[in-house]
Amino acid sequence: MKKILILSLTALLGACSSMNSTPQATLDGEVFYLQRIALPPTATLEVSLQDVSLADAPAVTLAKQSGPVKGQVPLPFHLRYDPASVKPGHTYAISARIEDNGQLLFINTERNSVDLNAKTLQPLRLRVDQVAH
């Protein structure tokens, strides 16, 4: 009985490790703004990698990082995505936004295209602009 239990657990652990062996690629960078103001301590940052190939369809998100802001600008980000989801001939872009309690404070206003087929991707710098309220 113990052997069956051990074999079952071993098979289950093997299946779990093979599910986590999906190849991952990463994009690193930082988000910044030009205004000389501090972010509130409750601010959150969201950075997304999206397929923006189709003009008449919503963008498809490949990776997203969101969470509380730690410190002040520049704010680092680290996106993990599956390289198998990158399609030849498609266009990809990164977007960023900073919110406080659901209210948008900063957002990128320019398209930040990224070539995911490049051999080496330099750390990216995304500028966000303040939203008028």
From TrEMBL:
Record bears the keyword Lipoprotein: yes
One Pfam family recorded for the sequence: YscW
InterPro entries, per the entry: Lipoprotein_YbaY-like (IPR053196), Pilotin (IPR039366)
Protein name: Lipoprotein
Source organism (scientific name): Pseudomonas lundensis
PANTHER family reported in the protein's UniProt record: GLYCOPROTEIN/POLYSACCHARIDE METABOLISM (PTHR38013), GLYCOPROTEIN_POLYSACCHARIDE METABOLISM (PTHR38013:SF1)
Keyword Transmembrane helix: no
Organism lineage: Bacteria, Pseudomonadati, Pseudomonadota, Gammaproteobacteria, Pseudomonadales
Signal peptide: 1-20
Keywords associated with the record: Lipoprotein, Signal
